[in-house]
């Protein structure tokens, strides 16, 4: 079968090629899924650089990608929730396997039935951004109605989903975006929109309960100033911290290193009585099922910037790396069962 594989890590020029690989075999708790569409995420451009080699373990050559939507073709002997012919969506991130292939192995506990009102392209856009937003805002952030949350980069993949989820939870939402996207993020539900080309968010926002850190640079440190005592910063972009290392059972050296990396932000946070933590999304089929209910009820709608055919996946990754996508970038596997459009889907 065809797959997009990483052959060699490199900061500047990783070797990524289309390959013919053997169709994978499944274990008793797994399913084989014919992939119809794959949602791309920024991590798909970071993994080939080797930045996460100490954390994410792949055996090269490795199939890239983590989000998918498709149809179950085979189930293991212990699988009880799905059967061949079921349309599913899933994230297989951090499992050492990939989704940018004609078929993918999907553990039963990572998958959910595809929302009935979404096509495969729309469904494939959801898993990582949906799970990240859910685990940040609901699970760890415990966001409540009436609280205030700051979600930077509101027009990006995470931002477009997280804003909608936060509004569904009853929160007041602030975000940042460029001038041309101000109206767009307002329509998603943002109450306060800071045009980063005209204003500094830390000069405008005050007394917030939660920050979802989605942008690199000094934004995380600046965010401390907008939070009230007892509030939280959940960072998706680092710095990595010692609790993250311990949760993954990393060795003492890495735990120490990650502790040093987060020393400054932890010191600043404690001074302001704010809790900082790094969040690394994990696959979770049960949570995807809950997210599916919100999608079917249209409390949350997918936002897709552009769709590329599988043979143009390298171009799609390059486009994603520019950081200008409004919503998600999705790959279709050209099996005639997905609809293709270069226009944003709202």
UniProtKB/TrEMBL annotation:
Residue ranges crossing the lipid bilayer per the database entry: none
Cleavable signal peptide: none
Location of the Enoyl reductase (ER) domain: 11-331
Superkingdom, natural source: Bacteria
GO molecular function, one term: oxidoreductase activity
Protein known as: NADP-dependent oxidoreductase
Organism this protein belongs to: Marinomonas arctica
């Amino acid at each position: 079968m065809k797959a997009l594989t990483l052959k060699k890590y490199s900061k500047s020029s990783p070797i990524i090629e289309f390959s013919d690989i053997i169709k994978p075999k499944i274990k008793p708790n797994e399913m084989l899924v014919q992939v119809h569409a794959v949602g791309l995420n920024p991590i798909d451009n970071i993994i080939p650089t080797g930045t996460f080699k100490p954390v994410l373990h792949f055996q090269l050559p490795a199939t890239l990608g983590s989000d998918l939507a498709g149809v179950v073709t085979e189930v293991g002997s212990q699988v009880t929730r799905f059967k061949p012919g079921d349309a599913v969506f899933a994230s297989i991130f951090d499992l050492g396997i990939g989704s940018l292939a004609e078929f993918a192995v999907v553990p039963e506990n990572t998958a959910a039935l595809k929302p009935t009102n979404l096509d495969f392209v729309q469904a494939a856009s959801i898993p990582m951004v949906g799970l990240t937003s859910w685990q940040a805002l609901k699970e760890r952030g415990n966001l409540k109605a009436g609280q205030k949350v700051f979600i930077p980069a509101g027009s990006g993949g995470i931002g477009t989903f997280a804003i909608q989820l936060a509004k569904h939870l009853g929160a007041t939402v602030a975000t940042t975006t460029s001038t041309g996207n101000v109206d767009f993020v307002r329509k998603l539900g943002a109450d306060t929109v800071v045009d980063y080309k005209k204003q500094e968010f830390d000069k405008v926002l005050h007394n917030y309960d939660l920050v979802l850190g989605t942008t690199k640079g000094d934004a995380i440190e600046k965010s401390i100033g907008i939070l009230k005592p007892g509030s939280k910063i959940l960072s998706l972009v680092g710095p990595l911290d010692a609790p993250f290392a311990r949760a993954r059972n990393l060795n003492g050296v890495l735990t120490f290193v990650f502790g040093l990396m987060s020393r400054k932000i932890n010191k600043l946070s404690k001074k302001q009585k704010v809790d900082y933590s790094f969040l690394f999304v994990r696959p979770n089929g049960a949570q995807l099922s809950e997210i599916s209910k919100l999608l079917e009820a249209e409390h949350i709608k997918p936002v897709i910037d552009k769709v590329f055919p599988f043979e143009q996946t390298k171009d799609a990754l390059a486009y994603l790396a520019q950081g200008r996508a409004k919503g998600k970038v999705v790959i279709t596997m050209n099996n005639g069962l997905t609809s293709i459009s270069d226009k944003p889907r709202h």
